[in-house]
Amino acid sequence: RHALQDRQRIDELTSSALIDCLTGLYNRRWLEMNFARLLSQQARDGSTLCLLVIDIDHFKEYNDTHGHRGGDLALIALGETLRCSLRPSDFATRYGGDEVVVLLQRTSAHEGLKIAERICQTMSERAVIDAGGAFLPGITLSIGVAASSAGVTPQSLMKAADRNLYRVKANGRNCVCGGPEN
Fold first, then answer.
1. CA spacing 20 to 30 A to 53: which of 90, 93, 136, 170?
2. Helix, strand or coil for residue 173?
């Protein structure tokens, strides 16, 4: 009986070490532990892994205007939106601050762009609500998209998605960008 309780406690601690407590998404440690494995698995299967790098538009100003609690509520809303928008085979991870990385298994660049557009649209229509039921302004997202190809590494795929994210920001935000597969 104690062994079973110990095993359950170990499982709980392992899970909490890999889940971001605010958003309920996986955390950066989970991404670092699994990204290369998932990428090589997709390559072996002859399929494509699509990467989304998501950034909340003007998040610092949102925090400054609505306080850190308002910023937390925006991050919680983003986490809920992603959990409802993604397939069970996809992985959303809080990378840091207001940046989220999503791994879409068996997904082409074209399909990844469509998914990113849907996430962007859904988030722009979603309200951010505080504990008292008061509405805060919603948030918008900028999303960079890149898809794997032969010889890609986690670092090169992340760099390609980041480049596309910067293109979105340079073009006014609240949209998605994905260039040629990398």
1. 136
2. coil
- Using the CB atoms, write b or e for 10-26: b if 16+ within 10 Å: eeeeeeeebbbeebebb
Question: 49 near 103, Cβ under 8 Å?
Answer: yes
Secondary structure (DSSP) of 123-171: HHH--EE-TTSPEEP---EEEEEEE--TT--HHHHHHHHHHHHHHHHHT
* Helix (H/G/I), strand (E/B), else coil: 91: strand
Which residues are identified as catalytic? 98
pLDDT at 159 over 70: yes
Q: Which of 95, 150, 107, 141 is nearest to 122 (CA)?
A: 141
pLDDT at position 15 over 80 = no
Average pLDDT, the chain: 90
* Longest distance between any two alpha carbons in the chain, whole Å: 60
State the Cα–Cα distance between residues 153 and 60, nearest whole angstrom: 31
Strand partners, 135: 129
Instruction: Collapse the DSSP code of 52 into the 3-class scheme (helix H, G, I; strand E, B; otherwise coil) and give the result.
Output: strand
| Complete DSSP assignment for 93-106 | EEEETTEEEEEETT
Amino acid identity for residue 96 in this structure? G
pLDDT by residue (tens digit) across 63-122? 999 999 999 999 999 999 999 999 999 999 999 999 999 999 999 999 999 999 999 999
